Amino acid sequence: EPEVTQTPSHQVTQMGQEVILRCVPISNHLYFYWYRQILGQKVEFLVSFYNNEISEKSEIFDDQFSVERPDGSNFTLKIRSTKLEDSAMYFCASSYRDIGYEQYFGPGTRLTVT
Amino acid sequence: AQSVTQPDIHITVSEGASLELRCNYSYGATPYLFWYVQSPGQGLQLLLKYFSGDTLVQGIKGFEAEFKRSQSSFNLRKPSVHWSDAAEYFCAVGTYNNNDMRFGAGTRLTVKP
């Protein structure tokens, strides 16, 4: 069964450093998403991406964040200058179509900012 | 914007007992409703979803949920819980005209032997 993969599984970085979280969505999917989950809190929507541009973003997704689909398979989330409060589990998801279709989630990347 | 409330942070049930997890949503039009399960260290897996039609929806692993518009609820049920059902359960709501999905805070299910 096809699945969404994410690398790395755990990333430790120092405050102020840039990080790139990588995702490989399911190959025939057209919509891509990033969510985050701070430890013990709810899953929060960050951004959705379709047709090589952002289609929705939340208030969390400020100028420090960016997303990119650099090639036909990868979907990345970049945090330009990490803060302590960026420590969280980051989930990538993809779907064939928009909200009416199931979003398949990856296993997540745990980001620890020290 | 749409929002979701899961009133129960933690529920403990005995194996074989029935289960109901509560979910209330807030949205002015017809929502798209989802239940996801998250096992420790894992991603989110879709259990079931409601968009329209029959208000009682069947999902995987023996779960079902009922959409009640009058109560703005979408409670998850299972008639007989198995030890492997122990996990975190998230209710989520989406809308037709935007692409973000809002999650509830989650309910952690513990299953006693």
Helix share bin of chain B: under 10%
Oligomer: heterodimer
Unreliable spans of chain A = none
H/E element order of chain A: EEEEEEEEEEE
Radius of gyration of chain B: 13 Å
Average pLDDT reading of chain B = 91
Biggest interface:
A-B, 26 and 24 residues
Helix count from the secondary structure assignment of chain A: 0
Distance between termini of chain A?
37 Å
Q: What is the helix content of chain A?
A: under 10%
Q: Give the N-terminus to C-terminus distance of chain B in angstroms.
A: 41 Å
> Biggest sheet of chain A, open or closed, and with what strands and sense?
7 strands, mixed
Apparent shape of chain A: globular
Biggest sheet of chain B: strands, sense, closure?
Answer: 6 strands, mixed
User: How would you spell out the order of helices and strands of chain B?
Assistant: EEEEEEEEEEEE
Could you describe the 3D structure shown?
The complex is a heterodimer of chains A (114) and B (113). Chain A is built from no helices and 11 strands. Chain A has strands spanning 5-7, 10-13, 19-24, 31-37, 43-50, 53-57, 65-68, 75-79, 88-95, 104-105, 109-113. Chain B is mainly β and 113 residues long. In chain B, 0% of the residues lie in helices and 51% in strands. Chain B has strands spanning 3-5, 10-14, 19-21, 24-26, 32-38, 44-50, 56-58, 64-68, 73-78, 87-94, 102-103, 107-112. In chain B, the strands form 3 sheets. In chain B, strands 2, 5, 6, 10, 11 and 12 form a 6-stranded mixed beta sheet that branches. Chain B is globular, with a radius of gyration of 13 Å. The mean pLDDT of chain B is 91. Chains A and B meet through strand 4, strand 5 and strand 10 of A and strand 6, strand 10 and strand 11 of B.
